[in-house]
Amino acid sequence: MCDESNNRKTDKQFVILARLYDEATLQVTTRFMEMPVCNVGNAENLYEKLSEALRKRGIPWENLIAFNSDNASVMKGRHNSVISRLKTSQPHVQDLGCICHLVQLATGCGIKAAQVPVEDILVGIYTHFDKSAKRCEIYKEFVDFTDSDHLKLLRYCSTRWLSLLTCIQRVLNQWDALQAYFNSHEEVERSAKSEGVQIHRLEEEMCRLIKRILGCLIPARAIVGGPLREVEYGEGHQLADEELFIGADTKAFMKSTALPVSAEKKIFQSVRRFYEAVLQKMFSSFPLDHPLLKDMKVLDPAARLNITPGTVERLGALFPQLHLSEDRLREELIDYQVTDSKQLPQEDKIDRFWGLVGKDVRFSELPRLMKALLCIPHSNASSERVFSMVRKIVTENRMSLDNSTVCALLSCKINHSGPAHKYTPSKKVLKDAKSATNLYNRSVNAREPHE
User: Fold this and answer.
1) How far is CA 230 from CA 168, 213, 222, 306, 427, in A?
2) Are strands 66-67 and 94-95 parallel, antiparallel or unpaired?
3) Checking phi first, is residue 115 left (phi over 0); if not, alpha (psi -120 to 50) or beta?
4) Tens-binned pLDDT, residue by residue, of the chain (451 aa)
5) What is the pTM of this model?
6) How far is CA 156 from CA 4, 136, 153, 253, 415, in A?
7) Residue 7: which residues within 8 A CB-CB, separation 6 or more?
8) Residue 85 Cα to chain centre, angstroms
9) Exposure of 320 by Cβ count < 10 A (0-12 exposed, 13-18 middle, 19+ buried)?
10) Dist CA 14 CA 451 (whole Å)
């Protein structure tokens, strides 16, 4: 999993994470590899940084199962991108994209189509109060008057899709105070994201999300009973205005306010444009027809009797780097399906379930395939969270931290699970710490004036 950002103001960083199956804990886990500086973030340089990270650790390209990043063209373009170069080294790598980022893009398309400048409003509110102690002090009076919570307004960054929902919730939480402030303040210009395994549910959740949005716009009977892509949701197939879903608060506001007929009509038109744009973007960008996702139900123990031999064969063929025995895989699948459910591991977590199945002497090839599938990330949220950690490490008073120090701190935070007091340093760590202490003491003594 990879992503790039510019959180150090001068240097652009490229975070590289690895998602793997930990045999010690029988869980899928995400590990921090490194975060090199890459100020020229073109596909060639990013690919070289990724190659260097694997090469330094002696990790062959054959071990790579899947690649995940945001959906920028430099990462996912067909011809001149990181993934196009990566496939020259590992032709069988799987690439699903980041579904969370795709949802955010679809929402953005809907907002633009509805002509409601949500992002501009968030940025405008933040910048109005930022750097102005006087405005913040005046605003506090309105917060007290409206009995709102004293919460700091958050800065929205368009390249950080995880921040959009949080910013919107924070503004809505203080909406009464903000509305009162902007209505009375004369100076104001009126223009002013699971680490758990979810890959086996990705196709189902994508379809459910699309159906829920379709249900807001068209009758339910038009959604069920046929292929999702063939559902008509354009003009002539939509619900009437009084049946269109606009939210209870909006409906109550329209009833309590004497709006002109033209204004009501404009509201409904905006809502329709929003739904249409979101659906169009989802259908065009969601990996609904990806051959891998359609077979990922094999991971779910509850669906084991519905697994066909062809499903496992197709999945095995997608990962030739695993060198699975097709005959052995088929035999183990039959054994897995006919085994009484009470004799299988009674474990709710899917990654632990397949780890325990792998300890059964009857199974070897099937658990290997399942563990590989479990390691495929369903989103790029982990990379986004790393940059949030960087912002907490590199504060205004610590801007001179070397990138290697930042990477070391990230490694400690991400790669070492459990509380800090239970961490047992290795002999090498203790030796290096002692050497660093001696080196520091010598440098301090050398700077002290001779008495």
Assistant:
1) 34, 15, 10, 26, 63
2) parallel
3) left
4) 888 775 555 678 888 999 998 898 888 888 889 988 888 888 888 989 999 999 999 999 888 988 888 878 888 887 888 888 888 888 888 887 777 777 777 777 777 777 667 777 777 787 777 767 778 888 887 787 677 777 777 776 655 555 667 788 888 888 878 877 776 654 433 333 455 667 788 888 888 889 999 999 999 999 988 889 999 998 889 999 989 998 888 888 888 888 888 888 888 999 999 999 999 999 988 888 888 888 888 998 988 898 899 999 999 988 898 999 999 999 999 999 999 989 999 888 889 999 999 999 999 999 999 999 988 888 877 887 888 888 888 888 888 888 888 888 888 888 887 777 777 888 888 998 899 899 988 888 887 665 4
5) 0.69
6) 18, 18, 9, 27, 29
7) 13, 387, 390, 391, 394
8) 23
9) exposed
10) 49
Task: Find out whether 393 and 409 touch, Cβ atoms under 8 Å.
Answer: yes
d(CA 309, CA 316): 11
- 8 Å CB contact between 358 and 344: no
Amino acid at 447: R
Q: Which residue has the tokens 């329209």?
A: 254
In 3D space, the residue among 136, 19, 135, 133 whose CA is nearest the CA of residue 69 turns out to be 19
SS3 state at 15: strand
